[in-house]
């Protein structure tokens, strides 16, 4: 095992040999630079996979090969990070264990856990959907799924953070993180509340339900009040509020094309193995045009990483 991380707060990146994992490593490095923390690149070697391999090699020799491969994958990711952010400190390690439980355990010490958006074809790859679902349901902090075209500088140039808002505690915590992220980036914030799918066409005043204008005005006022509380804490962030309709994920994605980051809340850490991510987060990690941050309700927006 190489260069094991210490106890200092860092951004944890799962490295699996995919191009999207390299994107995640570079994204994490840029975020670490903003926060003046280090990046920890981790590859997880699953010993269980060796038990079902066919061929002349013993399980031990297969594991030795995978450990050697892990070193190569980590070195490749470290080079990508060094090229993008040469001043950021990078720690690398490979860990033997089941990928998801191991990554969840490692997330305890991380400010953020960052993963790519697609599955590698090589051994040791972990599907981003599985990672985001499991780490968000069982982990100890926010998870970022890095989406968007590889090396697309347009995402970095966008000046908006989008957050999904409702009356839940999870959304309240996500809003706190979203304001912090907007402040770090010098970006505006757009808070989006969706009223769900409604009958008729809201684009056509003649087809709108009679009660819609009054209901929309009420929801707009409630959203304005909710966001005003956070704006008072972050006067440097220009906040916009949008009340819209449709499924929440698609409502958020309508605004995401101008966003550098989407932030949504989840119910948080669960002890139940069958716990799954909500439909909104699940849709976003598969379809959003920019990175998605999933914030459990227990995660504190503490940039120092201290309790």
Note the total helix count: 10
Number of domains: 2
Biggest sheet: strands, sense, closure?
Answer: 10 strands, mixed
CATH architecture of the largest domain: 3-Layer(aba) Sandwich
User: What is the chain-wise order of helices and strands?
Assistant: EHEHHEHEHEHEHEHEHEHE
CATH topological fold name of the largest domain: Rossmann fold
> Over all CA atoms, what is the radius of gyration?
21 Å
Could you give the order of strands across the largest sheet?
3-2-1-4-5-10-9-6-7-8
CATH class of the largest domain: Alpha Beta
- Termini separation comes to 29 Å
- Average pLDDT taken over every residue: 81
Contiguous runs where pLDDT drops below 50 for at least 5 residues = 1-6, 120-126, 269-276, 303-307
Strand residue percentage? 15-25%
Task: Compute the number of strand runs.
Answer: 10
Class by SSE composition: alpha/beta
Sum up the overall morphology in one term.
Answer: elongated
* Helix content estimate: 40-55%
Short description:
It comes from Mycolicibacterium fortuitum subsp. fortuitum DSM 46621 = ATCC 6841 = JCM 6387. The protein is α/β, with parallel strands linked by helices and about 300 residues long.
